[in-house]
């Protein structure tokens, strides 16, 4: 079984590929949209909002995701990849994909930015089932998602939205590829979900 990973040369791609493989799946890196429709797609990101949006727009991925998201079994956005699922961010001036209603703003309730290190989650969700949520996941970010979509399910880490799900679209603010066994289990859970 394969999982497609969007490659716009921003993100921990080698670590993410290893995480996907450790979960028992084959990782396919795609610098441009594929001719076939993958079942599962991961949108990883380490960058600023506008730079990341520009990369996925220029590569054709933004248009492809907007056209095909309803046909996917699952789309998972990681870190900035999660943030661009929303409408906009105060980090930049570009529009996001708007797949989930809400905005991204500087994480003002955090004592020190960036918010970096292991953080526990308040509860388990579909994505974090069988994960040790007390140990949690590895975070590295300064901006956080404010979800206004009432059809979306979220879980938090303190005041930060850590995960979000709306139908087949998922986002995680943390980095599964840096979260060892919990990250591997999360990828397994993501592969199991269907709309």
Describe the structure.
This protein has five helices and twelve strands. By secondary structure, it is α/β, with parallel strands linked by helices. The chain has a single domain (about 1-190), classed as 3-Layer(aba) Sandwich (Rossmann fold), CATH 3.40.50. The strands form three sheets. The chain has a seven-stranded mixed sheet with strand order 2-1-3-4-12-11-10. Strands 5-6-9 form a three-stranded mixed sheet, with no helix packed on it. The protein has a two-stranded antiparallel sheet with strand order 7-8. A hairpin with a 2-residue loop joins β10 (about 155) and β11. The radius of gyration is 15 Å and the shape is globular.
Q: Which properties best describe this structure?
A:
alpha/beta; 5 helices; Rossmann fold; 195 residues
Q: Can you identify the CATH superfamily?
A: Class I glutamine amidotransferase (GATase) domain
Shape: globular
The percentage of residues in β strands lies in 25-35%
Q: How many structural domains does the protein architecture include?
A: 1
What's the helix and strand layout?
Elements: E1 2-6, H1 13-22, E2 26-30, E3 40-45, H2 49-58, H3 61-68, E4 74-79, H4 80-83, E5 88-89, E6 102-106, E7 115-119, E8 137-141, E9 143-147, E10 153-157, E11 160-166, E12 169-172, H5 180-192
Parallel strand pairs: 1-2, 1-3, 3-4, 4-12, 5-6
Antiparallel strand pairs: 6-9, 7-8, 10-11, 11-12
Summarize the structure.
The chain has about 200 residues and is an alpha/beta fold. It has helices spanning about 15-20, 50-60, 60-70, 80-85, 180-190; strands spanning about 1-5, 25-30, 40-45, 75-80, 90, 100-105, 115-120, 135-140, 145, 155, 160-165, 170.
